[in-house]
Amino acid sequence: MSCENPTAEADAIMPRKRKYDKSRTCVKCKENAGNVVVRHAVYCRACFIPQMTYKFRRSLEPYVNAKPDGPRRTALKPTGNLLVAFSGGLGSTVLLDLVNRCYVSPDPTLLTADGGRDHPRNERVWKRVHVCYVECCDVLLGTKDRTEEVKNLVEQIQGVEFISLRIQDAFDSSWWNSIFHEDSNGDVVVDLSDEMLPFVTTGSSTQTPLSAMKAYLASLPTPTALPTTLNNLIRVLLQHTALNTNSSHLLFGTSLTSLAVSLISNVSQGGGFHVKEEMQEEWFPDARLAKNSKIGSVRLIRPLKDISVKECGVWAWWSRLRVIGREEWTWPGAKPGIGRLTKDFIRGLETDYPSTVSTIVRTCGKLSPKGSTSGQCLLCQRPAQEGVQAWKARIAIRSHDDVALAGTSVPDPPGHALAPLLCYVCHTTLTSKGTRAAPALYPSHTSPSVGISVPLWASSYLLGSALHDESSDTGFVEPVAFSGGKRMSQEELRGAISEFILD
Ligand SMILES: [Zn+2]
Ligand SMILES: [Zn+2]
């Protein structure tokens, strides 16, 4: 082997894996020369397009009807509208194109190949299709506002409606009140210095939504917590938008590659209990919010979950899609968080060993978390694992203060503590002791106070709860548990924190 160029030299030392297995001929039609290699298999363009459309529909259509379909398909009849989450990134750009060409303005070139009797071309599947974009530039210094650019791109598609939100809407009572017709303007302030997260309710907030949002982010303990928190806030904002637009389905452009990244990085941050939800979840909103909606639940589906980021790139290239791109969510100057490190690792793995990435996702798909669910986490709206606080109290003494106070302090009753209403990840994120994000994120920010406001879905619930304590039995709805509609009783709440209570 010649050693004239450095690549050849590297190959001589450690032979690179060949990109494809056998020949350069398409594995599907066995005629055309291949144009693209997908996990060692060569495809021509004519075979790639229907193959990808098939994978997309296979991940979505069995979950469209209220009752999941068996192998024999019936016509697609969702109970509500469709909401597409759009970030400007490659995955969501491809997702929007597929949704448009399969269900909004059916494209005959896509649909003839795998049509059939129940073809979506016959009747529009979702009556209304909304596309929602959540802008984060106001909380991340140095990032660009892409709302106009996204709006222009989405409005080129006939038959979809554009909704634009800003991340601080999570703290904006005018947004909340306008969609849920509430007129509560109270605020809930949580004390982060205490692991039980006691809170007080106050009159209307003096902070702007943006300053409340910044204070919330400034309290985060590690660089890793920033993308996790933003992702959760965006997802829950979208869930409430879906409820408000009567959308029974909410789609995300998470590719196989991004899914592998989020699964691994979530598990490494203690989110193992939510492995199933990372892939697919069904959100049952609090009955108080659902009462004005035509839909009982929102299905969150990731129809690109079997399609790698590379296949998305090929699709975007061949379909001449414009990809706006999205910002990286990092603290300026911080070491990369777990999410970033996992992403680099998975991307590298995908280049050299493409099948490994789908193995990660398949393996995670087989995991089922141990332990039972005790309702829905107030912050991230995902199932909360039973007895998290009790378990945490058993396994760790996290500060000297805990030891010193153990014999003397009596924690706040469950009615005024947030901790029993949170999942493990959210509780850990709020209470971990690390360097707070404030100096890196907001150099001019005045030193973070110990009290922060919580997003509106949480404060609205807690305000309802506070009212309940003082007056009657009506008006307050406990969170409905994820499965079986079980409600979390006061006894269970108390059980969850029993280790903290000294009778
Ligand atoms: Zn072919
Ligand atoms: Zn949570």
TrEMBL record:
The keyword Plastid does not apply. Pfam families: CTU2 (PF10288). GO terms for biological process: protein urmylation; tRNA wobble position uridine thiolation. Keywords: Cytoplasm, tRNA processing. Transmembrane segments: none annotated. InterPro entries: CTU2, Rossmann-like_a/b/a_fold. Pathway: tRNA modification; 5-methoxycarbonylmethyl-2-thiouridine-tRNA biosynthesis. One of its GO terms (molecular function) is sulfurtransferase activity. It comes from the Eukaryota. Its main location: cytoplasm. It is found in: Cytoplasm. Belongs to the CTU2/NCS2 family. This is Cytoplasmic tRNA 2-thiolation protein 2. It comes from Phanerochaete carnosa (strain HHB-10118-sp) (White-rot fungus). The gene is NCS2.
